[in-house]
Design a protein that fits this description.
The structure holds 2 protein chains of 2 kinds. By secondary structure, chain A is an all-alpha fold. Chain A contains 12 helices and no strands. Helices cover 77% and strands 0% of the residues of chain A. In chain A, helix 2 packs across helix 11 and helix 4 packs across helix 6. By secondary structure, chain B is mainly α. The chains are: A mainly alpha, B mainly alpha.
Chain lengths: 273, 275
Amino acid sequence: MMRRTHPALSAWAWLVYGFLYLPILVLIIFSFNDSKFGGTWAGFTTKWYGVLLAREDVREALTNTLLVALSSTLISTVLGTLVGLGLWRYSTRFRLPLTFLLVTPIVIPDVVMGVSLLMFYSLVRGGLELTGWTFENGFWTVMFAHVTFQISYVALTVRSRLAGYDRSLEEAARDLGASSVQSFLRVILPLALPGVLAGALLAFTLSLDDFVVTYFTSGSGFRTLPVLIYTSVKKGVTPDINALSTLLVLVTVVAIIAANAIMRPRPGRRGEA
Amino acid sequence: MLTLRRFFATLGPGVLWLAVFLIVPVAIMFGYSLLTRTDLAQVGGPLTLESWGRVFGYDALFREWVPDNLRVLGRSVLIAGFSTLLCILMGYPLAFYIARQPARRKSFLLLLLIIPFWTNFLIRVYAWILILRPFDLVPSLTATFLGMVYAFLPFFVLPVYSSVEKVDWRLLEAAQDLGASPIKAFMAAVFPQTLPGLIAGILLTFIPALGTFVVSDILGGAKTALIGNLVQNQFGQAGDWPYGSALSFLLMGAVLVGLWLYARSAGQKGLEELI
């Protein structure tokens, strides 16, 4: 393995890293800028964070965002973990189509997922109206949509965590007299746990960050923070949005570092990635 | 062996969920693309290929081909293609740099790459307004390109990196020992080994770039409208769901064909590593 790197290559790499972090740094700096119009530096202030926390709509969007993220993560972690275990435990000739099914939510453009769910919900609502019952797009429609793109991430993280373990572990547990539920709870789950936690953290982050799918499935009365940011940005840049963005970036950074630390003992691809 | 009972205990619920919330909606979307718009956001029969005709540039009323209608499609491909090219220029060398660092430093550099990747897409795009506005570059095509590259660069670097990490460097030494110039040795011995990652990276950049509406919406303005913007508009102001469905289906078709081609060349393992 050659460790030698050409100075030009190093310089290029650091330039690219600079490019990746410049906008985030500018965002953080401007969130402390004591100027209503951004553009120039007018001294340090934390008042925008105060302005932000005083806004009723921001608090409501924050509650919505957290509720959606927590409940969708809970559901997708259970479903995704089971899928991950199944992928690891059983060999089946449906393996390729299954992988394809799991990869699809990750690779299809989110706008496609958003609009197809929008039509799905509208059709379901139309059908339900015939029975005299109805629903509005809001918490439930957004939350179910989030679960749909989260499952794959959890499943693949769990599977990559288990990839190094021998499948006969479960058989060994069964031979020693454990029931299938016992062998799952006492042997397999503890092994998979770091993958489950990392998957759950990633799912949570994905839900917090999602704008496009939420935008199409939320209807008019229900807003999450990314939707609120979008609406504000369309109206014009305001400093309290910088503060809100900075806070969201901070949450993401903490979640990613935590997921990374949990996965470290046996880094899978998503663990490193 | 995967029995039916085991299937329902493990894979079943998740697969069922994806069937209901992913496959059924996509099937519905296909159905809608064959209907006609009757009123704002209302659809009805008869079944027609009109929306599909419009996607490929046919005028709805005169049944004649108006290449002008393909402008957005063409522009999308051009903008997404050029953004992908910029990602290759920036990201391909970066993948080599990361792959050739000592292990500890490597995981730190990867983490640094991942943080923007997981940071809210909208915020990442929005941050460029703050930088470019003083230069009077919002909205502009330049801003769109910057936003695109910034949004998709990590998607490109990660698969390339995983290919570069597996490169057998002895081949490079062998090529050089046999008298090849450094560039020739690289192209003959190393470049082909990175090809699977490069193709995955291009797919993962080009496809989302085709579909995004946020970047051009926030940074580009009306002149840089892409397929994604066109779709968004059909489900917003224009209220033409059949046309929007046909466009979305085209977009998704492009993705799945790309994915299928990739799965064929890289196999099951390659498909799993894409993630």
